[in-house]
Amino acid sequence: MQSVACISICPAPAGVDRVVAVDDVTEYQTCILPAAPCNKNDPASCTTANNCNQVGLLWTEATRVCSACAVGTDFDPNSKSCKPAAGVCDARSLSSCTDQPSCSAVAGLWYKNACISACPAPAGIGLAVAEDGVTEYQTCILPAAECNKNDPASCKTGDACNKVGLLWTEATRVCAVCAAGTEFDPDSKSCVAVTKKKIKIEVLDLNKNLVAKAAKLKAKDKYTVKVTIAPEKVLPADHLVLVKISYGSVVKTTFVDKKAGVDVNGEEKVEFTHDVAPEFKGNMTVDVFVWNNWPSLSGIWEALLPEGGNEQEGGSVTYAVE
């Protein structure tokens, strides 16, 4: 029969603790024998997180249960969690995945014969075809080199090649410079014979690429208007090159440049930028004129090149704006 008594000191190995009385409310001090030692082979014997973790077991605070780690994982004392055992391919241990199929199976990126979680800059995630020639898997793809007009081999697609004024041959997938005596025509995307006009108007995008006449300009975008004058006759000093930009039938802006003289078979250029109005939709026309002076009632003036404003002769060009 268990004895009941009021004492001042607990007998060894018991210690002082508090328990609840039979009324389920009142607490009182009593003597409690120490819990059985925490045994790794008997997780239920571990009743606190510290004891559980100290013997290499996993403590779950929500249920206050101590348990062994699952097969294929080991207890990590630093994170106090179960992690994949060494050599086991897992999303938390990608370095253990030693081939593409196992890496892809755990959503890793197979790149340079290693399984990784993120691509190193400047590479980005892309798809590659596995050895079976059918299955696609995620890997890291380096960005294509910028297409450089001075290095046609750097242009890997037809669009990139044509955009910088080079010729793309789809059959061989080769980008090349047009042959001597020809120039690239962005509308036909082919090399055509050079036809020298006295006035040549070019509209360039922000990257200084020629915009095809069949293309549409974008409202709000900035473009460069480049005019080349090759008069085949002497142009006097202080002559005027006038460029008019019209939206439909309304003149939007004009540009005037007083130029030095040009010799026979000489050439001069005028270049400026124009921001297409954000609200405009319709046709934008660029007209170029070459005058000897400003028109006046008292002075003598004349159009030095009759090609001015003539679309067939190169003195005018119209683009659709969207």
Q: What share of residues are in beta strands?
A: 35-45%
Strands of the widest sheet, in order across it, are: 16-22-21-18-19
Termini separation comes to: 100 Å
What is the CATH topology classification name of the largest domain?
A: Coagulation Factor XIII, Chain A, domain 1
Largest sheet: 5 strands, mixed
Helix fraction, binned, reads under 10%
CATH first level of the largest domain:
Mainly Beta
The CATH architecture of the largest domain: Distorted Sandwich
CATH superfamily of the largest domain: abc- transporter (atp binding component) like domain
Question: Explain this structure to me?
Answer:
The protein is 6% helix and 36% strand. A hairpin with a 2-residue loop joins strand 18 and strand 19 (250-259). It starts with 14 loop residues before the first strand and ends with a strand. It has helices spanning 49-54, 100-105, 158-163, and strands at 15-20, 27-32, 58-60, 65-67, 73-76, 81-84, 109-111, 114-116, 124-129, 136-141, 167-169, 174-176, 182-185, 190-193, 199-204, 216-217, 222-229, 239-247, 250-259, 268-275, 282-291, 316-321. The relative contact order is 0.07. The chain is mainly beta and 322 residues long.
